[in-house]
Write a structure and sequence with these properties.
This protein has 466 residues and is an alpha+beta fold. The protein has 15 helices and 18 strands.
Amino acid sequence: MIGVLRKKPVDKLTEVLGKEKVKTSPVERKLYSYDATPIPIERAVPSAVVFPETHQDVSLLVRVCYEENIPIFPRGAGSGLTGGAVPTLEKGIVVSFERMNRFEVNVDNATAEVQPGVITAQFQEHVEKLGLFYPPDPSSYKYSTLGGNIAENAGGPRCLKYGVTREYVLGLTAVIKEGKTLKTGNPVIKDVAGYDLTKLMVGSEGTLGLITSATLKLIPKPKARATALALFEDLEKVGQAVTKIFTAGIFPSALEFMDAEAIRAVEDYKPVGLPKVEALLLIEVDGSEQGVAEDLRQIKELLSSMGIQVRTAGSKEEEENLWSARKNLGPALGNLRSGKINEDVVIPRIHLSEAIPGYRAVAQKYGLLMVIFGHIGDGNLHVNLLYDKANREEEERAERAVDEIFELTLRYGGSITGEHGVGLTKRKFLPWQFGEVGYELLRGIKLLFDPKNLFNPGKVVQVGPG
């Protein structure tokens, strides 16, 4: 008797979704096995890349994956820096949401319904034309997706004043275990019914389910915005200046820090005329025309009294040049060394003046070049350890230094990540921050939503193979 040949799991997906939505060519599978993580990490070429177009597609594919035990690795634009979108098992599939890119804005209610594949910058441009504002602005905003931003709880410079992505997600629809649909929240500002499942899903990095749509809160677009540049010859005065600005009752929309190495790197990469100083602050204020002018006047007065030179951007073009310097910092560091570990730690502002020299001491201990920049107003620093990829011994020193960077961060009551997420690269350090009890709760939540550990296995919390 001739046995019946069993269909391969990928064939089942093709049968359910169609050939146009399930790609198995070696080229596509290879292309979707990477994200923007700058350091070597475990990765695998997936068995297929799936491109759903509707919520129903996502529900069907999850149902098949749960029946066939196929690991699911969700992906936005692949701009993440901690390996969150990288497949780690060859039998798994990558689910790319790039075809789910529609959105609808309700101007009267100041909300928007968005699919996960919407490009962040395109969405922001559209709502601003309507007089509304969506503040989260990660450095990758020109190509990152809203779904990826939600999954990672993305931040950016403006989050100092306006908060991270979590603050703007009122509700969402997701597919969890067995293809079941989870609906959370409503398009209202006040909703205190039950546990906050919406905020639990935001920042879950695709480990609890696949988000297929979200309701976003919008706010009125600020009428005016201006940028100032503060120049420091003494690094210790930076923390003092930040404190002085806040205690004066001024709340900048962005407060960005660059040290001397960061300034040098960006000027060598794409010069905009930044002066050679020990550090600088890029300060943005927004609000009414009168309020912005008054804030700038006060900032100049406060910092000048400390002996700090302050310049204001005289035109829109000058403002854009200053911000392009900040946005270009990531690629600019590639000119200094071939290897980079970029950790987005968060420190309480009151400890910044102690922590920054502490980080530098770690770099000096391991003989490494360190560049620090970031969102200093909320204590979110990008601590970059640079090394030569061809020198394995130097790379190992950089890896050991990372442990000490996180130990120092947690000693000051900080966090191991402010916006990049945990993914693969920071998974080891999550128990350090949460402790034994907290980490067990995280594992329990993961298994409640995903008992088979098929949603982005191996990321954030470790509950089994993957």
